[in-house]
Amino acid sequence: MSALLPLFPLRLVAFPGNAIPLHIFEERYKEMVGEAETAGTEFGIVLAHEGGVVNAGCTVVVEKVVQRYPDGRFDVIVRGRRRFSLLSIDNGRDYLRGEVEYFEDDDWEPVTPDLRERALCSWRDVRTANSSDDGEPDPEHPFLSFQLVRMVGDLDFQSLMLRARSEAERLRHFVQFAQEYVPRVRYAEKMKRTAPTNGSGHTPASL
User: Fold this and answer.
1) Closest CA to 96 of 147, 136, 44, 148
2) 3-state secondary structure of 79
3) In contact, 24 and 66? CB cutoff 8 Å
4) Closest Cα to residue 43, out of 95, 88, 105, 91?
5) How distant, in Å, are the alpha carbons of 13, 111, 182 from that of 105?
6) Which residues of the chain does CATH 2.30.130.40 include?
7) Among 7, 18, 171, 198, which residue has the fewest nearby CB atoms (within 10 Å)?
8) What was the pLDDT predicted at 202?
9) Phi, psi of 89 (to 5 degrees)
10) Strands 43-49, 5-10: pairing kind
11) How far apart are CA 181 and CA 150, in angstroms?
């Protein structure tokens, strides 16, 4: 068996190249992340669900320790590296470790300029709906999809995108998803604004 990869189950999905801020406070993860920081090694972030974890994730490395606290807690910035499938889990230490198989894209269908532009337009619609001030992604990045999908607040969709092995396929998925996601977000925001006025969020029958 190859060396076991330390695993950090979280309610988030990490992507190659993306930076993630983490607040480390549990003793087992202070140990795990501290060892990775000292040795310059990777650990894996896997999406935590009720009753377990998703069987795919992304390794990260500690890029910067932002702050250390007197009680041993610390804030770090980690950056995504490699995607992996989780083959088995080992419980031999205080934190989970896993036997993993790394993977990359295996379908190199060219991304057309039209598809890239449609994906970017969809991303801008998502950004507006989310009222986010995130800066523009790099439109020429070979893995543009990983920059776009972090804007979406749907972990299951993010996990699907992480596992997809074609950039063109991921961009098409993103465009299609945004067509349904943006109206949902806008409706939710409308309900937040109007619900206090009539108790339901819809126009009162008397009006």
Assistant:
1) 44
2) strand
3) no
4) 95
5) 18, 13, 28
6) 5-103
7) 198
8) 46
9) -120, 140
10) parallel
11) 13
For 77-108, write each residue's pLDDT tens digit.
Answer: 999 999 999 999 999 999 999 999 999 999 99
The top-level CATH class assigned to 5-103 is mainly beta
Contact 171, 143 (CB under 8 A): no
Report the SS3 class of residue 204.
coil
32 vs 74: CA distance, rounded Å: 12
Segment 162-201, tens digit of pLDDT = 999 999 999 999 999 999 999 988 877 677 767 555 554 4
C-alpha to C-alpha distance for 75 and 202, rounded to whole angstroms: 43
Query: Are 116 and 144 spatial neighbours (Cβ–Cβ below 8 Å)?
Result: yes
pTM, two decimal places:
0.87
Distance between CA atoms of 6 and 1, rounded to whole angstroms?
14
